[in-house]
Amino acid sequence: MKWLTSVLATTTLVVGIGASNAASAATTLKTVKDRGYVQCGVSTGLPGFSQADEKGHWTGLDVDTCRAIAAAIFGDATKVKFTPLTAKERFTALQSGEIDVLIRNTTWTLTRDAALGVNFAGTNYYDGQGFLVRKSLDAKSAKDLDGTKICLQAATTTEQTLADYFRENGMKYQPLVFDTSGQTLTGFASGRCDVLTSDRAQLAALRTKLDDPASTKLLPDVISKEPLGPVVRQGDDEWFNIVKWVLFTQIDAEELGVTSKNVDDMTKSDDPSIQRLLGSSGDMGVKLNLPAEFGYDIIKEVGNYAEMFNRNVGPDTPLGLKRGINALWTNGGILYAPPVR
Length: 341
What we know:
By secondary structure, the chain is of the alpha/beta class.
């Protein structure tokens, strides 16, 4: 029976460790409340998504998603601090607890979902990998890039996708791999490579930093799916649900026509969906361990998804991006959130 005693002891130990880890992991909301702010991991600087100015003020789509989480918890979108991270650093920072949430133009993949101890809490931007080239290269599509030198960033999905695409099409290329997106841009701008590859929105952002953006062009090819969104540690369902439903709230608010400008009037709406969204009725906040009016605070402080998109990356910004597939499902896109009910 010694073997059985040993097995039971080992099982008890493993279960105990698992329970202990689960208990310690499930404290993110309390940790954030006790600390007084959300610690959010962002990029080291990508216009339109997460970029700090000379005074250290951060702006961007990813930044606004961080701010929306703070608004939901504290009723104050300013109660957030930002940790700039490279692609190599980002998951380690999340896993170690250095940050509470990672919102850093990060692609949701099976490997990352299953092997890194993290959960993706939705998609705040649907993207795809593309190519930025100098017009002098006279390339009309990715099929014209055989034999070129290509700058790309390490520790990203870009590397494997690029290798797969060129192998499948019987083409060759010379990769020049850098640690940061800024370094890839420098390599491209200095002529060390003929092509810069990354997610198309990131290429549009990097292009704005060139001395002569008009001398370059984005090729029409999209060679991958890159759903980008917030990431949290596994083992804390409460925090996972909060981050997920903050994003869903912004998407649902756009669909329901609730904006930062009309949200006060909308609190008087007779529409049950709007009432639940803004906390005028129901107990949505209680279910998430958030204030009843968390939806109101998100929209009042940060805005709905359309406001966030247009302010940071939309047609009237330097990036000049159209909604495309990031439009609501009711407007021909694929942006879709579960209902708040």
